[in-house]
Amino acid sequence: MNPTVLLAARRSRFLPPVRTLPQVAEIKMPLAGALMTRWICSHLAYSMLAALAWCVTPWPAQATPPTAIPRDAASWLMRIHEAAYRRNYQGTLTVSSAGTVSSSRVAHYCEGGQQYEQIEALDGEPRSVLRHNELVHTLWPRNRLALVEQRDPRVGFPALPADASRRVLESYELLPLGQDRIAGHEADVLLLKARDKARFSQRLWVEQRTGLLLRSDILADNGTVLESSAFSELRLDVRPRSDQLMNALRRVDGFRVVRPALVPTTLDTEGWQLKTLPTGFREVSCARRDLDPLAGNHTPVVLQLIHSDGLTHVSMFIEPFVPQRHAHETSLVTGATHTLMLRRDDHWVTVVGDVPPDTLKRFANALERRR
Amino acid sequence: MLSESSNERDRDLQTLSLVCDGQADATQVRALCAAWRDDPGLEEAWHSWTLAADVLRSDDLASSAAHDRDFLACFRQRLADEPVVLAPLAPPAPQPEAARVMWVANGQAVLRPGRRRWVAPSAVAAGFVVVAGVMVLLGGVPGAGVDNPAMLVQAPAGVLPAGAEQAKRDPQVDSYVNAHRQFTQGAALAAPGGLRQVALTPDGR
After folding, report:
1. A295-323 pLDDT tens trace
2. How many angstroms separate the Cα of A41 from the Cα of each of A55, A126, A263?
3. B173 touches chain A (CB under 8 A)
4. Whether B168 contacts chain A with CB within 8 A
5. Rounded CA gap, A138 and A146, in Å?
6. Is A294 in contact with B169 (Cβ distance < 8 A)?
7. Which residues of A53-91 are buried (b: 16+ CB within 10 A; e: fewer)?
8. Closest chain B residue to A298 measured between Cα atoms?
9. What percent of chain A has pLDDT above 70?
10. Which residues are CB-neighbours of A371 under 8 A, at least 6 positions away?
């Protein structure tokens, strides 16, 4: 039989209906196994097609070869993580949250093991973010203001720490949903389905050739999209322009440079302890810091404790109770981000995270003053 | 008696004619409105005259008298079914600067008193999509004054996010949210899920 006809027949037999993305609420557990089987079959077919394409069509000179398509969930996460670090790309990223939409031009380069990023906001106040490894400059040119921060590489996604893949899968189940197309790129769609109600599910669109994350949605329990961020345009395997970025990073003459103070500490040292927390959350950072570095001497110093389940984070801020500032105990929501503020004796506790409000309550209830 | 009634009717029709031409004063309009309640013939006359004028302009404008009434009834019903866009205000915290936006996830917006205050619920359906008009007055930057123009944002008329207790936002809370995002984002920013972590203005709003 003609090989082309054979491949076409296999593809039509194995591939799931194209671009049908079920909502979270629609996914039932018995269906997951069938989906997985069908999805693996589809990728076998894709692998064969890719192998054939590899034989007949050479890659462009500057393009990097595709990474292997993973067979298990942990490998998927590591592939996304690797792509976010190693790929050179430029594009436009659009963020939709709480009824607002904003766009930014972004560029990411990896050169000689060094990480470079440049982000230009396209809406509202002109601002740009320049990153070289963990050093992040946020610049507001109109106000000649520069915020210089040292980011913590241990937290964040897709900046996954070494064991994060395993930890993520303790709290989330990874399910393939099919294929889709984002910003002109073919993508595999994955669902990180929360294993309990203590966190939100996330839906990820992963570029098929490289593993780069093209879109991520945060989903409520009923499948409603709470927040979404996606590339609307993307060029992969661009030539790195790290020299330009570094030049811009050094050009802060005439800017007022603000460096936020951050003093690492421990909860025990500060006289606090935590009882039982929601499953899967572990402490990743504890520090005393200025709440709003740009406010100068007026900003309060707070204790910030960060917990992560490998994918999402919860921050607890603890500070002395000040009646003028801390008027009302309250619970607020913006997009997927919930905030809980309450008084605990002589202290004011604020819990923030992209998790359901009940999870924040459990964090707040777990906090105790050591006698 | 009949003559008096006939005179009144003629007078009302004359007033109606003035209203059609835009020449009636406030007293005449008030009198006509009072007569309109009791005399269904006035509505019929109004429709006949306006219909004649409309048809002279275009055949497409021809319609029965019931058409407008049905449309208005339907419009009122749809407005009544719309979710409330502006909610009652919370007791304001001390706020030296002007009014700030408070945002919500489910399409509701709350405005706090400040330099400007929108009191009346101004939920006007445009194509029956909820549009929340939100005044954004960004706070002062250290060393500089910044005022951003108002912007209209289309809010989704969706359901409340799971577990949401209150759907409002306080500017004072934003500093905590920004601090959370700055220090939980980690290193990678230029990727989906990363950019929302970046503060929008120098004062983090």
Report:
1. 767 788 999 999 988 888 899 999 999 98
2. 22, 48, 52
3. yes
4. yes
5. 6
6. no
7. eeeeeeeeeeeeeebebbeebeebbbbbbbbbbbbbbbb
8. B142
9. 76
10. none
